[in-house]
Amino acid sequence: MKRRTGFFRRLIRILLPAGGITFLLLIVLAFTTLPFHAYYRLATKGSRMSEKPVTIVMLAGAGIPSENGLIRAWYTAWLAKESPEAKVIVAAPGKLNDSTGDPLSIAGELILRGVKGDNILHETEGKNTRGQARNIAAMIPASERNRPLAIVTSPEHIRRAVLSFRKAGFTNVSGFPAFESSLEADLVFDDRDLKGNRLAPPIGENLQFRYQFWNHLKYEVIVLREYFALAYYKLRGWI
Fold this sequence. Notes:
With 239 residues, this protein is α/β, with parallel strands linked by helices. The chain contains seven helices and five strands; from the N terminus they run ααβαβαβαβαβα. The chain has two domains: 43-177, HUPs (Rossmann fold); 185-239. The protein has a five-stranded parallel beta sheet with strand order 3-2-1-4-5, sandwiched between helices.
C-alpha cells in the first residue's frame, strides 16, 4: 500500500509541473499565428483539388441542424453547382425510411440549396471515417475508383479523411475544407461610446484579445485532438 501511495505521489509531482508548463506554452502560442497555420495545414496538405470531381462525398458531421453539418452542406451544394453532373454521396448514419433522420434531412438541405435530388446517394452504415470510406468503396466499382472524388468535411478532418479514402482504394482523392467565413465589417469600437464604468481596461481596439486569442486556443484543442486521431488511425493501419 505504501509503495503504491509513493508511486502516485511521485507521478503527481511529475505531472503537475509538466501540466503547468504545457498550459503556459499553449497560452503563449495562442498569441501567435502558429495554431491557425497548424489548423490550415491539416486542411490543405496533399489534398488540393486539381480537376472537377465525378463524385462528391459529404461527411455529415453532427447532422442537420448543427454548425458543422450546415456549413458542410453549404460547401457541398456550392461544389455540386460547379460540377453539376457529379454524384453526391451523403455519409450519415441513419435510416432512409425516417423522414426526420439525418440522411434525409441533409438531402433536403442540399436540395434546398440547388442540388439535384436524383444525384444524391446515401451511405448510412459507417460510424467513423474508416467505416464510411470502406462502405463508399463498396458502392463504387473498382474500375471507377481512379476517377476524381472530392470530400467535403471540416478543415481539420480533411487530411485524415483523404488518407482513409486512399487506403480504401481511391487513387484520385481531394479535400474540400468547409472553412468558416469572418465578418468583413470593421469590429473596432471606441469604449467611451458605450459608457459604463472604467474598472476594466478598454478593449474596443484590441481585436487580438477579443477574438484571435480565443480562436487560437480553440484551434489548439482541435489540432491536438486531430493529431491523436491521426496517430490512432496510423497504428490501426487505417491510413
